[in-house]
Design a protein that fits this description.
Elements (H helix, E strand, L loop, with lengths): L6 H8 L5 H12 L1 H4 L4 H8 L3 H10 L5 H12 L17 H14 L6 H13 L3 E5 L4 H13 L4 E2 L4 H9 L6 E6 L5 H12 L3 E6 L12 E4 L8 E2 L2 E2 L2 H34 L5
Parallel strand pairs: 1-2, 1-3, 3-4, 4-5
Antiparallel strand pairs: 6-7
């Protein structure tokens, strides 16, 4: 969809028509357009002293479907390079080794944002639940489907789909013995947020896995695992590398596998002790 005016021009032209609460958001965007394209709806609300709902209302009053569309348009207005992050620019193949170093450093940085307690709580919830309902949209779907496959290899029942309507239907049919894991790079995906809201209404435990901090889906989650790696060199126009979220999923698989092996060893020890009991008085 083509817009006649840039986002900043659109705000200035409509400034007198928007509500006073929305003007706080508009003022911030006018002051900090470059920063606006690098934050999510909750962060913009916090930075401007408004609410998430106010940010979204402003975007709709300006003619956009929501914050994400406005942010993409703003990034386009500012220039393509505003959507690139890090010291490495797209197409600079001579620095691919630097990119690998950046990825490795970012993965190590995630341990500053994810606590062992949150990992353990997530593992405990997965182990004791009946079914894990996995929800994702867009670029997060491949990582989610792979995670579902690996859960199955561990004997853990899960539901997943590349169709958002199927995902939400699975959640809606869930029981209180189930859990829902929403996976979203931005933490602002409408479908993931809706699924978590449905889960909460049914009393299901909800877990959010995202790259960004202070996101809308975090507000609907009982447990949040966030890498804190919002941008990297492998990022352009909403297509971000999911290596960091995949790292979290790998950690969960590792911990689940270890827990199941420990349980199997304990069960085997009990069986051996029972058999040996026949030789004792």
């Amino acid at each position: 969809m083509e817009f006649e005016y840039s986002v900043l021009e659109n705000i200035r032209l409509n400034y007198e028509e928007i509500f006073s609460a929305e003007r706080k958001v508009a003022d911030y965007i006018l002051r900090e357009p470059e920063h606006t394209v690098r934050i999510n709806v909750s962060e913009l609300a916090e930075a401007s002293g408004a609410s998430d709902a106010t940010v979204i209302r402003l975007c709709k009053h300006l003619g956009y479907k929501g914050f994400y569309q406005m942010k993409l348009q703003l990034a386009h207005d500012l220039g393509r390079d505003q959507l690139l992050s890090g010291s490495i620019q797209s197409g600079d193949t001579s620095n691919w080794d630097d990119m690998l170093k950046e990825v490795a450093a970012n993965i190590m940085q995630t341990k500053n944002n994810i606590s062992s307690e949150s990992i353990q709580k997530t593992v405990d919830q997965i182990l004791k639940c009946n079914t894990v309902h996995l929800v994702a949209i867009g670029n997060s779907i491949p990582s989610t489907l792979d995670f579902a496959f690996r859960l199955g290899r561990l004997g853990i029942r899960s539901t997943s789909s590349s169709i958002s309507e199927h995902q939400i239907n699975n959640v809606d049919l869930g029981t209180k013995d189930d859990i829902v894991i929403g996976i979203s790079h931005s933490g602002s995906s409408k479908q993931v947020l809706l699924a978590l809201e449905v889960a909460k209404k049914h009393g299901l435990t909800t877990i959010a896995i995202t790259d960004q901090l202070r996101t809308p889906i975090e507000k609907e989650a009982d447990i949040t695992l966030s890498t804190g790696i919002e941008y990297s060199s492998v990022y352009i126009f909403g297509a971000a590398s999911h290596i960091y979220i995949t790292a979290i999923l790998d950690i969960l698989i590792y911990e689940l596998d270890r827990a199941k092996k420990d349980a199997a060893k304990n069960a085997l020890a009990d069986d051996v002790e029972y058999l040996l009991s026949e030789t004792k008085l």
